[in-house]
User: What shape does this take?
Amino acid sequence: ASLYAQLGYEVEREYYFNDEGRQIDLLAESLWARICEQRGIAVPIPEGGYHGEYLIPIAAELAQAESVGDSFDDATHATLREQAVMRMTAVIRHDLDQLGVHFDSWFSETALHRRGDVDNALQTLREHGGTYCRDGAEWLAAEAHGGQKDSVLVRSDGRPTYLLVDIAYHLDKRRRGLDEVIDVQGADHQIEQDSVLTALRLLGFPESFLRYAVHQFVSLREGGQTLRMSTRAGRFVQLSDLTEELGPDIVRYFMIARRPSTHLEFDLDLARRESLDNPVTYIQYAHTRISSIFRKVPEGTIRNLSAVELAPLAAQVEREMIRQLDAFPDLVRQAATEFSPHLIAEYALSLSRSFHAYYADHRILGVEERTSAARLALIEGLRLVLHRCLTLLGMRTPEVM
Assistant: This one.
């Protein structure tokens, strides 16, 4: 989103909550099992339910609430659904805020059901010849319209699938007047992604309306071992724990530094290092170092650096850095359009390497005035671009370290 904003687009960031359907029922049932545990009653977590310990403190509080009865009847079920969604939403908002990830709007799946948008989407698909019935269910005729695989829209028991709801959601986005939509999703949703694109195509949407920024899974590596995680089994490390331990800058950089379509191993040992082996420290130190140079410039001696004569920058390394800086605008466009923010992370690291090597071999202050002014102009350009890189990555731009 920051990359597209940098390119001049009007960008709206929206978080979509799946707060309806079977997974929310399982969440409520899992919470009930934890409440019973608090009350000294053994009730198993349902098959496919959520085993994470994050439900225990919620259960401890709700076990004392008058609104939660002694049996898992309809009223208790509804209460726990509402409480689970509300509290998990609060956790998500807190964790994202802690990481510096902010959204302009928060969209609830429930709203699509209550407004009748899901039923309307199904009817629209029917009118365009996009569905058929088989085995008591209603299917999207994807293969007949160039899609990979026909998929169920409405189950035999009458419940809509996530696919139908997602189609309704994108129809809503179109009604809101959005020109282009980018969905950030995991690689495990490829068939559904293709089906949504097929549905929109048969409804006459332009091909450019929806694109998917697909991300592979993240694993953690520590002590030479990969930590095996499973959300439902309760084996995972929470994002908030990483952010609290490492700080948002390091977490953001390590999450961004790999191409989204490749599997990411988050190296905890490297992330914890405070030396220049840590790429975050290395990049931020380049920005800090340049700032410290300018603090040493005698007051009143800095001229308008944009008007400085650059002819003294004759060394090959200096011209190479100028070429690096000149490539930045095109790189931003490539990183945005190809869903490759890792290019900015790689570029910032490369630029920092160039500066640190240059600083080791070339004096900037205390040399002939024309040469010093030209070199100050060069490193000010470096600082400007590093600042923009770090800002795009959502990281701090420290003046001192």
